[in-house]
């Protein structure tokens, strides 16, 4: 039951919100002004009608007074003074009606003129209020658009997205640090050193095979064989003594080196 009453209350509030919408309120105010203007115009028409009726009665009374005066004049010309007096009495009574009608007509004419001025002012006010209503509607629409934009901006959430990027970057940095640590530990281990030596040996073998391939393809010449000519002098203890020729050659070589040493010393002293 409570849910039902809450539902009815929500519908009522929604209807009241719609009724209190500035668009609806301005349209209703515009209709009220137009209806009031129409009613006042109708009253003005009735007032003008009464004024015109009074004017007709006044014109008729004036015409009758003129006619009675003309009859009295004719009676005097014919010498019938009694008849002329009777016509003048009727004219006097009719002139009293003319006076009363004239006063009524003057009042009605003044009222009609005031009504015309009031209607004209009311028409100008209606036109002015209609223009203001259009301006207010435009302002209301602009306010609604601005509120919609503000609500849309308030609904935007960038922080969660940025947090996701930050979390991903943090995980990547952790993985990189862990990989570097494992690589460092692997390089310091015995197995890593052995694998490093094997990698160097494979590199040397690959370089040798590449050199041979270049030689076969003629891209590189094979190095010339060099023969080191060395003179070996074997001295054996307790063996046979060197020959005289060998002794002479040794002495001659020593003398040459001694002479070269003396020349260097003499040149330095000079």
Could you name the key traits of this structure?
single chain, 270 residues, mainly alpha, Helix Hairpins, 2 domains, 86% helix
Q: Can you offer a commentary on this structure?
A:
Helix content is 86%, strand content 0%. The protein is mainly alpha-helical. The chain folds into two domains: 150 residues, Helix Hairpins; 48 residues. Helix 2 runs antiparallel to helix 3. The longest helix is centred in the middle third of the chain and has 75 residues. The protein is rod-shaped and about 215 Å long. About 6% of the residues have low confidence.
Major sheet size, sense and barrel closure:
none
Name the average pLDDT. Answer: 76
* Termini Cα gap: 133 Å
Radius of gyration (Å): 69 Å
Q: Fraction of residues in helices?
A: over 70%
Strand content: under 5%
Shape call:
rod-shaped
Q: Which class of secondary structure composition applies to the elements?
A: mainly alpha
Give the strand tally.
Answer: 0
């Amino acid at each position: 039951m409570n849910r039902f009453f809450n539902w009815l209350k929500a519908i009522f509030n929604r209807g009241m919100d719609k009724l209190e919408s500035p668009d609806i309120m301005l349209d209703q105010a515009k209709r009220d002004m137009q209806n009031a203007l129409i009613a006042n115009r109708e009253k003005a028409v009735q007032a003008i009608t009464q004024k015109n009726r009074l004017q007709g009665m006044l014109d008729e009374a004036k015409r009758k007074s003129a006619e009675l005066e003309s009859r009295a004049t004719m009676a005097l010309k014919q010498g019938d003074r009694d008849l002329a007096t009777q016509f003048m009495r009727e004219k006097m009574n009719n002139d009293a009606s003319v006076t009363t009608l004239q006063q009524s007509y003057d009042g009605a004419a003044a009222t009609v003129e005031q009504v015309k001025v009031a209607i004209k002012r009311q028409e100008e006010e209606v036109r002015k209020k209609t223009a203001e209503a259009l301006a207010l509607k435009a302002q209301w629409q602009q306010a609604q658009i601005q509120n919609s934009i503000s609500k849309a901006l308030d609904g935007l959430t960038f922080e969660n997205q940025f947090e996701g990027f930050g979390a991903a970057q943090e995980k990547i940095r952790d993985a990189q640090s862990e990989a570097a640590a494992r690589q460092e530990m692997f390089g310091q281990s015995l197995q890593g050193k052995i694998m490093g030596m094997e990698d160097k040996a494979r590199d040397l073998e690959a370089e040798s095979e590449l050199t041979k391939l270049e030689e076969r393809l003629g891209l590189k010449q094979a190095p010339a064989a060099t023969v080191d000519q060395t003179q070996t002098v074997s001295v054996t203890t307790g063996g046979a003594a060197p020959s005289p020729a060998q002794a002479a050659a040794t002495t001659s070589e020593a003398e040459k080196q001694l002479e070269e040493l003396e020349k260097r010393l003499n040149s330095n002293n000079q």
